[in-house]
Write a structure and sequence with these properties.
about 55% strand
C-alpha cells in the first residue's frame, strides 16, 4: 500500500467515523412505538364559531428502508370531506424517515390550506461531524428554492420531533416545563419549544376517556412564541395522541382519536 493510498484510506475512515458519531449524537431511545402502529382520527373545523365534521386523519409508523438501511417511515395525512371543501380545503400529507434510533433522515410536507399549496422537504446527513441539511420548498407560485445548511447541534422537523417526543419521560415535569427544539422546514430553521401544561382527561371519538399529558408545540415568530399544535397524549408509555388542536393559517381544527392498533405498550391511562 502506497503512502497516498494509506492517506486516502485514513481520510475516508475518519469521515465515516465522524459521520457516524454525529448521527449517534442525534439518536434517542425509543420506548413508545413499534412498527405497525396505526392511528385514526375524526377531523373538525371551526367555521364561523361552529365546529363541523371536516373529514378524517390517519397516522402510521412502519419499519421500512432508507438509503439502503432499516428506517422507520411515519406518515400523517388529513383529508377534508366534500361538504367542508366548499368552505375550506384541508389536505396535508406529512412523511418522515428516521433511523431505528430515531435520528432524522428525511421529511416531506405537502400542505393545501384553502387555495394555498406548498411542499417542503428536508434531507439529512451527518458527514463531517455535523447535522447537514438540504432544504427544498415548492412555493405556492410553483417556484422551487433550495438551501444547504450545517449545524453543530441536532436539528429536527415537525414529524421527526413528534416521534422522538413520544419517548420523553415527563416524570418530574411541572406545569410550564419547556423543551427547546430547533425545527427545520423547506426554507430554514426555527427555534421552537414543547411546553408542558399538566394532565387532563380527554374523551376520544371511540367513546373512551383517557388521562392525558397536555403539550404545546410553539414556534418563535417576531420574538414571541406562537402555538401551532396542542397535543393531548396518553399518560402512559405509548404517549398516543388522543386529541390535537391545530391552529392553521386560515382558522383552527381539531382531531379526536377514533381507533388505535399495534400500540407497543398496554394502554394504562383509561379513566373509568
Amino acid at each position: 500500500m502506497t503512502m497516498k493510498t494509506l492517506k486516502n484510506y485514513v481520510i475516508a475512515l475518519v469521515m465515516l467515523l465522524t459521520a457516524g458519531s454525529a448521527q449517534a449524537q442525534c439518536t434517542f431511545n425509543n420506548t413508545s412505538f413499534n412498527s405497525g402502529e396505526f392511528l385514526s382520527y375524526n377531523l373538525y373545523y371551526n367555521w364561523k364559531f361552529v365546529w363541523v365534521k371536516a373529514g378524517t386523519a390517519s397516522m402510521s409508523t412502519v419499519l421500512s428502508r432508507y438509503g439502503g438501511k432499516p428506517a422507520y417511515r411515519a406518515s400523517l395525512t388529513t383529508r377534508g370531506n366534500n361538504k367542508v371543501d366548499e368552505m375550506f380545503v384541508l389536505r396535508d400529507t406529512l412523511l418522515s424517515y428516521c433511523s431505528e434510533e430515531l435520528a432524522p433522515l428525511y421529511y416531506r410536507k405537502g400542505a393545501r390550506e384553502g387555495s394555498h399549496y406548498t411542499v417542503d422537504e428536508v434531507f439529512y446527513d451527518y458527514a463531517g461531524g455535523k447535522c447537514n441539511l438540504r432544504q427544498h420548498r415548492q412555493h405556492n407560485s410553483g417556484e422551487h428554492s433550495w438551501k444547504k445548511n450545517s449545524y453543530d447541534d441536532c436539528v429536527y422537523d415537525m414529524l421527526n420531533i413528534f416521534l422522538r417526543a413520544r419517548s420523553f419521560n415527563p416524570e418530574g415535569w411541572k406545569k410550564g416545563h419547556i423543551v427547546k427544539i430547533p425545527i427545520a422546514d423547506g426554507t430554514g430553521m426555527t427555534n421552537a419549544i414543547l411546553k408542558y401544561s399538566g394532565t387532563t382527561n380527554v374523551k376520544a371519538d371511540n367513546g373512551v376517556k383517557y388521562r392525558c399529558l397536555q403539550l404545546s408545540y410553539m414556534e418563535q415568530e417576531k420574538g414571541k412564541y406562537k402555538e401551532i399544535v396542542r397535543f393531548y397524549v396518553t399518560d402512559d408509555q405509548n404517549h398516543i395522541p388522543v386529541r390535537l388542536d391545530m391552529f392553521l393559517r386560515f382558522g383552527s381544527a381539531k382531531a379526536f382519536l377514533t381507533s388505535m392498533k399495534g400500540n407497543r405498550n398496554p394502554v394504562g391511562c383509561v379513566v373509568k
